[in-house]
Specification:
Layout: E1 5-12, H1 21-35, H2 42-55, E2 65-71, E3 76-82, E4 88-91, E5 100-103, E6 121-125, E7 131-135, H3 137-140, H4 151-162, H5 167-182, E8 191-198
Helix pairs in contact: 4-5
Length: 200
């Protein structure tokens, strides 16, 4: 991936709980090797995971996950979502489409919630300069001292402003934007941000 894109992940725990995106990534790789045939796309992997979690009858627990499989040879990405906020794509102007950030509307129920859940899968073309942003709800739901949420609109404004920067700088820009908006209001939830930028 390094020759075609750069990817940066950062997770900031709240005061009450923490998250480890790298441990999660390792767990996903282990699951795919053990349970999901290579022919499965993101939607198939989510459906298989949902079945396994539901069979374990962990009624008080569920899992949210956005699975994106980037194929740089075919210049495409396949995405399926199970309960995380919609990812954001920011593109340069091309083929009559305006430049800018927009949410990829891809709903899905959390894994383990219902037996037999299926998930939509969306395939998008890739182009140099494309930026993909994946965040946990702690980013969207960060509140200021008046109780207002940061929200998708403010997040897309930050991504638009940082589009031409590196993936790492975009992550830093998002956290700086959230912190400036929140002010003295404490963090109530952990925040994880993954940014992938297509470089060629």
């Amino acid at each position: 991936m390094s020759s075609a894109a750069t990817c940066t992940t950062f997770s900031r725990p709240s005061r009450t709980r923490s998250s480890s995106p790298w441990a999660t990534c390792r767990a996903r790789r282990t699951f795919r090797r053990r349970y999901a045939p290579e022919r499965f796309g993101p939607a198939g992997v989510l459906a298989s995971t949902n079945t396994i979690l539901h069979q374990r009858q962990l009624e008080e627990y569920y899992c949210t996950l956005c699975y994106a499989a980037f194929d740089f040879k075919r210049r495409s990405v396949a995405i399926a979502n199970s309960g995380l906020p919609y990812p954001i794509r920011c593109s340069r102007a091309r083929h009559g489409h305006p430049a800018g950030a927009e949410q990829i509307v891809l709903p899905g129920v959390p894994l383990g919630s219902f037996f037999g859940s299926t998930f939509d899968e969306l395939t998008l073309d890739l182009a140099a300069g494309d930026v993909f942003v994946f965040c946990t709800d702690g980013v969207f739901e960060a509140t200021d001292t008046l109780g207002r949420e940061f929200g998708a609109g403010r997040l897309m404004e930050v991504v638009n402003a940082c589009q031409e920067r590196s993936a790492r700088d975009i992550v830093d820009g998002i956290f700086s934007g959230v912190q400036a908006f929140r002010g003295e209001s404490p963090a109530d939830d952990d925040m994880t941000v993954v940014v992938l930028k297509v470089t060629q």
